[in-house]
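Quick note —
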Amino acid sequence: MKQNHWLQWNVPVLKKSISVKEYLRDQKGMSLTTLKSAKMNGSILCDGRPVTVRHMLQGGEVLHISLPAAPLPSSIPLCSLPLEILFEDEHVLIINKPPHLPTMPGRGEEKESLAGAVLQYYVNQNLPSSFHAVSRLDRQTSGIVAIAKHTYAHQRLADFFQKGIGKKYYIGIVNGRWEQPEGIINRPIARKPDSIIEHQVHPAGKQAKTGYKVEKTVCGHDVTRFTLYTGRTHQIRVHTAFAGHPLIGDSLYGNRSELIQRQALHAAKLQFCHPVFESWHTITADLPEDMRRLIEDELTL
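Predicted structure written out below.
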């Protein structure tokens, strides 16, 4: 039987006593759903003794929360693929995804996906985890994918990124040259009404903000570093196309290219605050071979 996930915190000195529920909700950002799961199917220990969420904390205690293991989703076929693991602990797994591999199986048709490979890895390691991608990459986009190993890590990491606590950086190659070598594209994005895939800049869409900076120029095309301030679907692809410089090889928002067999986009760097320990980490992912050949000299991430 798989073990539960354990969270541990050393409660700091408090100005006034607070309940376990207040501490977890207000100071650790735990959702009511996750807290209920711990109450009903896990456990809550204070200095090794079982307590309820109404137990009052004075400060200085050690709080342990047990979250139940999630079952493997039957809709995702398991597959054995090599994984380039950039970071791993008991709460978070960060992978450098290769191009041409979907993060999730689309409509159950693909036999191979990053999700299936990660789940197979969990089975092999006897880890009590499901697949919680904090952010997904398009099939053709390569690079960093952050995966939470349990619901609390997923919920808190997603909340951090939504609040701007952490940054995601991409390297892309756009068609042509930017009019300005550095700038911000701040345009709302919405799904196109006649498409289930394609998105567009539209005033009725959700706020989307992308920073860009030219790193070098190769054969008349700008190698560009992008900073994501929001996380909308296809955000970089939509914003570059809107600006008149779609990514090279992006057949959806631009044109196919003989230079590369996909859109030239790579999630190169991630700065994040750990969802449990609240420590800061910087993760980088090397460029894949197809983009490295185009850019020639590797960039310092």
